[in-house]
Design brief:
Among the domains are: about 100 residues, no CATH class; about 80 residues, 2-Layer Sandwich (Potassium Channel Kv1.1, Chain A). About 60% of the residues lie in helices and about 5% in strands. The protein has a three-stranded mixed β-sheet with strand order 2-1-3. The N terminus is likely disordered.
Length: about 350
C-alpha cells in the first residue's frame, strides 16, 4: 500500500497537507490528499467526518508510520494501518451511498469524479480511458466488488471492457454518480451490453422497465433487443403486443428495417392467428424490394411462410400488380403464376 523506501518524502507532504486541513480549514466541506500515494478509495471527506475518532486515528497512524525506521516496526505499523483503513472504508461505503441521509456526500463524490480527483479505477473502452472510483462500482456491481477484493493492493485498478461503447459507458457512469440516465430505443442496446459487462443489475432493471413500454413503432426493435439480451419478460410482452396488433405493426416504416431472421420468425409464428394475409404478403414483397433482395433462396423461404389458402385470386393478382418488381426474377415469376392458377 505504501512504498517505505521511495515515498517517504511524498508521505511527509501528504501528512502535512492533512494536518493543515484539519487545523486551519474548518470551513471546507472536504479535504485533499496527493492522489495515488496511499491506498485510500475516498479521500475527500465531509467536514463532520474530519473530527471523528476514526479519522484522527488514521492520521496518527500515518504520522507514526512516517517516523518508524525499523523494518520490523514498519511491517507492524502497515498491518495496523491496513486494519484501520478497511474498518473505516466500510463505514464510508455505508455513509456515501445512503441516499436518503447523505445526498451531500453523494454530490461531493460526483464533483470529485467530474474533476478526476482521487479516482482509483481506470475503465478502458476501445483504447480510451475513463476514470471512476472503485467504491462506486463496488456499491452497484457484485462482479466488480469481487474484482476489487482480489486486487486490494492496486493503486489504480485497470479494467478492459471489450464489448462496450464510449457513449454507453459515459451514460452509465453518469447514472452511478447522479442517478440520471437517458434511455432511448437507439441507445438501449449498447447500454444493456455495457451494463451486463459491468454487472450492474439496477441499470438492467431500468432498461427492462423502459422496454416494457411498447408501441407499434418500437415493437420490432424491442423484440430484437429482448432476444439478443435474453430478456424473457420483455419478449413475452412484445410478443403479446405483436399478436394483438400484427396488421398495425407491419404497416410502419420500421417494419422495412427488420432483419431477415426476424421476418422469417414472424411469418412462421403460429400464435399469430388473426392476421390479414393480403397485407402480410404485400408488406413482405415490399420488404424484399426495399432491401434489394435477389437471393432466390431467401425469397422462397419467406414466400413459403405465406398462408396462401387465405388469399383469393383477385387479391393475389392485385398484390402482384402493385409489387411487380418481384416478377423480374424469372424463377419467382413462374412460381407465382402457378399460385395464380
Amino acid at each position: 500500500m505504501i512504498n517505505n523506501n521511495n515515498n517517504s518524502t511524498n508521505l511527509n507532504i501528504n501528512i502535512n497537507r492533512l494536518s493543515y486541513s484539519i487545523d486551519s480549514s474548518q470551513q471546507l466541506s472536504y479535504i485533499h490528499f496527493q492522489p495515488f500515494r496511499v491506498s485510500y478509495s475516498i479521500i475527500n471527506l465531509k467536514e463532520k467526518f474530519l473530527h471523528s475518532i476514526q479519522s484522527k486515528n488514521i492520521l496518527n497512524i500515518y504520522q507514526h508510520l512516517n517516523i518508524v525506521k525499523n523494518q520490523k516496526h514498519n511491517l507492524l505499523s502497515t498491518i495496523k494501518l491496513t486494519q484501520n483503513y478497511y474498518l473505516f472504508e466500510r463505514n464510508l461505503i455505508k455513509k456515501f451511498f445512503d441516499l436518503n441521509k447523505n445526498v451531500l456526500s453523494k454530490k461531493i463524490l460526483e464533483q470529485m469524479w467530474r474533476s478526476s480527483q482521487f479516482c482509483d479505477l481506470l475503465l478502458i473502452v476501445q483504447g480510451s480511458e475513463y476514470l471512476a472510483h472503485r467504491l462506486v462500482l463496488a456499491a452497484s456491481s457484485h462482479k466488480f466488488k469481487q474484482i476489487f477484493n482480489k486486487r486490494k493492493s492496486d493503486f489504480v485498478t485497470r479494467v478492459h471492457l471489450r464489448h462496450s461503447t464510449h457513449k454507453s459507458l459515459q451514460l452509465i457512469l453518469n447514472y452511478l454518480y447522479t442517478d440520471n440516465i437517458i434511455l432511448t430505443i437507439r441507445n438501449i442496446d449498447d447500454i444493456l451490453t455495457c451494463t451486463k459487462e459491468l454487472g450492474i443489475r439496477k441499470v438492467i432493471d431500468l432498461c427492462i422497465t423502459y422496454l416494457s413500454q411498447i408501441n407499434k413503432r418500437t415493437i420490432f426493435q424491442i423484440l430484437n433487443i429482448a432476444c439478443k439480451h435474453d430478456l424473457s419478460e420483455v419478449y413475452y410482452l412484445a410478443h403479446k403486443f405483436l399478436i394483438q396488433s400484427m396488421d398495425e405493426c407491419i404497416h410502419t416504416k420500421e417494419f422495412i428495417d427488420i432483419t431477415y431472421w426476424m421476418l422469417k420468425q414472424i411469418l412462421s409464428d403460429v400464435n399469430i392467428e388473426k392476421r390479414q394475409e393480403f397485407h402480410v404478403l404485400d408488406r413482405t414483397l415490399q420488404w424484399l424490394s426495399c432491401n434489394h433482395i435477389s437471393n432466390t433462396d431467401i425469397i422462397f423461404e419467406l414466400l413459403n411462410k405465406i398462408r396462401w389458402q387465405n388469399l383469393t385470386y383477385l387479391s393475389l393478382k392485385e398484390i402482384l400488380a402493385i409489387n411487380y418488381e418481384i416478377l423480374h426474377i424469372p424463377i419467382v415469376k413462374q412460381w407465382l403464376i402457378k399460385k395464380l392458377t
